[in-house]
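Example 196.
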Amino acid sequence: MRLFAAVNPPPEVVAELAAAVAPLHSLPGAAHLRWTAPDTWHFTLAFLGEVDEALLPELTERLARAAHRHPPHELRFARGGRFGDRVLWVGADGERTVLRDLARSTAAGARRAGAAVDSTHDFHAHLTLARASGHPVRLRPYAEGLADFVGMPWTVDRLELVRSRLPVSGLPGERPRYETVGAWELGRSGVVPDGG
Ligand code: 2AM
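Predicted structure in complex with adenosine-2'-monophosphate:
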C-alpha cells in the first residue's frame, strides 16, 4: 500500500487558509492547475511509497516511538512559495525545528522498518496547494499572492500514517483518496484513542 506520514491542521486553520487561497483562483491559468482539496491539506513528514503490509506492525511501533520523542509544538501557515512552475505551496512559521526533527525521526523510523523513504532531500515544510498539469502556468504571481499571508497559530500534537489511493478512473480532476491508518500523540507513548 502507498503510505505517507503527515500532520494535519485543524478545520478553522484550514478554513482561514482556504479563504486566503480563494482569490488565487482568479489569476491567469488557474483553471490549468490541479488544486488540492482543503479537506486533505497536510504537511507531509515522510513519503514512504509502496509498503508491504507485512511491515505495518514494525512501522507502527517505530512511528509511535518517533512521535513519543518530540513534544507538541506551535506552527502557523505562512507565505506562499513554489518549486519552479511545478508546485505552489504555503510554508510554515513557528517551531519549525521541532517539526523538522519529528520529520527526520519519522523518516528514520520508517526506513528502519524497511520502507524505502527518500533520503536525498531533507525535510522542507510545505503544504501543496496546486500542481502544474502539463499546461504551462507561471506560478510566481500565485506565490506572490500569498507573500504576506500569516495564519493563526495551531498546535501540532499528533502524527498520522496515511494511506493514499491513487485515482483509477482516469477522469480529469480526480484526486487521490487519503485514509488515516494510524495516529500517535506527540510527546506521549501510546496510540490516539478512538475519536480523539
Ligand atoms: P507534495 O505535496 O510535496 O507533493 C501524498 O502524495 C503526499 O506525499 C503529498 O503531500 C506529497 O507531497 C508527498 N510526497 C512526497 N514525496 C512524494 C513522491 N515521491 N511521490 C508522491 N508523493 C510524495
